[in-house]
């Protein structure tokens, strides 16, 4: 296994460009494929690309808010104390890998933005504390927990199709969360992955100490933060900035709204998720000034995502306008029957996600075709929808887009950790494929 990991690591270090270059390359590749395969002119394709560049601006903002506010939750004093306590109980490299995977995975199950950040933070703490930890691996292990978001409370596709008024409601109706992420097959899959993935990641740790790259404490130690209020005074403005009464009052008002929202029968969606994260964060940080300070730090970790999201929106516009996504999906659907459609949906979703790494945007281009196929073949709509979600979460392990926050926190390069993520991708793929087939045939 170590030889295979080294093989992929060497390949990635030689040939894998930075994430932004990867996004540009995917844009050009999609453009060429659409011209060669689909009946569309260069002018029409260019128009679709440029016109779609900002189509996901609102969704981009939602994603950025989730990440930035997830950072606030992950760096709140109470969270930091908990992570320090966890790190203090870890003494060996393999245990550190297991703990980083679990923290990143559980965090991502609760909220993917929170999990992305808290995984990187605990990995960094463990690498600084535990001697002999291979730093690129522990960062990769923490990021691998991100795949749990496809099974968790912020899984975009299950949440979307359970929300009244979603764009495919006329075609498929509403699919409740009890039929998707809270169904027995997906709960079993979550438990199996939660047990096996940390152990698999620990097996990837180099056995020869000469191959271990440890964290450099001088380079990665936390730097003193610049406080927003440099002068401590008794002015009214300063007292308001640091008022716990204001923070707890507005935080409580937010929590009351959340209770009213769910009491009225409303379902979970991205907007209410962001609302919950915002007001819990305000309460945990305790003052408006402290919240703003942590949020400013969090925004630094999402700059790459803000830059690249429009490029992926453009790629999705190319695929939708040219019909390329339908062509890709049709190749797999033509092989399907009512039992195998979810399996081929998983596989096709994996490949499409290279070009559309946002689950919401991904579903917008692949969802209509898959639902039509499911209705025509008599396949389960819930299984088909979840297969697209799992394919998305599976591919995210090696799609460079969502790795950006982990790279920002760790100060590593994509090529440093991708070899490990390729190995993890193969392992997680086996779990998801078996789960999808078992759901179709046995449950």
From TrEMBL:
What is the residue range of the signal peptide feature? none
A Pfam family assignment: SCFA_trans
- Please list every transmembrane segment annotated in the UniProt record, as residue ranges: 20-41, 53-76, 96-123, 135-161, 181-200, 245-262, 268-289, 301-321, 341-365, 420-442
Q: What is this protein called?
A: Short-chain fatty acids transporter
Traced from the root, the source organism's taxonomic lineage reads:
Bacteria, Bacillati, Bacillota, Bacilli, Bacillales
| Presence of the UniProt keyword Transmembrane in the record | yes
**Assigned keywords, A-Z:** Membrane, Transmembrane, Transmembrane helix
